[in-house]
Amino acid sequence: MKRIFAAALLCTMLSTMLSTSAAAAERTVSAAVNGRTITEDALLSDGVTYVPIRSFLDALGDFTVQWESETRSAVAAGNGHYIAAPVGSETLYVNGSTLTAPDKTEVRNGSTYIPLRLVAEELGLRVHWDRARQCAVVSGTLPSAYRSDEDLYWLSRIISAESRGEALAGQIAVGNVVLNRVRSNDFADTIKDVVFEVDSGYVQFEPVSNGTVYEEPSYRSVLAAKMALAGCDIVGESLYFFSPALSTGSWIRANRTYLTTIGCHRFYL
Questions:
Q1: Is the domain of 128 the same as that of 180?
Q2: Max Cα separation, the chain?
Q3: Tell me, what's the pLDDT at 17?
Q4: Are 12 and 135 found together in one domain?
């Protein structure tokens, strides 16, 4: 499912434009999370409640939410979970699962609206309709599969230093390589140790040599790191990458199996 998410969302451009037609039965209602009203601008259409993705996720905790113009998608990650909602599509991606919404995702007044029950239940939360209040109510604690703050700190920095100018897909792919190395018996056992690993006298990542790994990461790089940590998979079991514009990658090309090219990087198994 994760590879499907990567191919369908982050490596292709969505060509379907936003639908602006409103269902006849549509009306404005409210939505609440654990007793706290999060929006008075939820939409009830054909029995389905839609809420602004940012309002919903802000109520759940430390989520990073960003609009990705390349794929016309609202993308968010935090607490070991991720969500991607391509506008103009009935498909949603939540933690590696591909979901089908009752209607196409739309943007209204600058906010991307998602079907509340579909997404909340996939995240492990409960949803019920409060008829008296005319309010969709979410309850429960978001299950957390999150790693340590140190993991996010170093993963976001190496992603930013290696691929700051890349699209989200390319940045997640860099994060995937770091995490694949952590899981491999051939590299160090933590993200920080992988980032700073030295083999035969050579650092593994150029930003460690030039010091850019210590720079504040971009907002997109933090999102990419959170998505990679949550299990978003772009490049499978890839362990190596290089940029032909900056390196010949002679050892990698001679000794590893080519997988794919994303942005300015070539990835190898």
A1: no
A2: 69
A3: 35
A4: yes
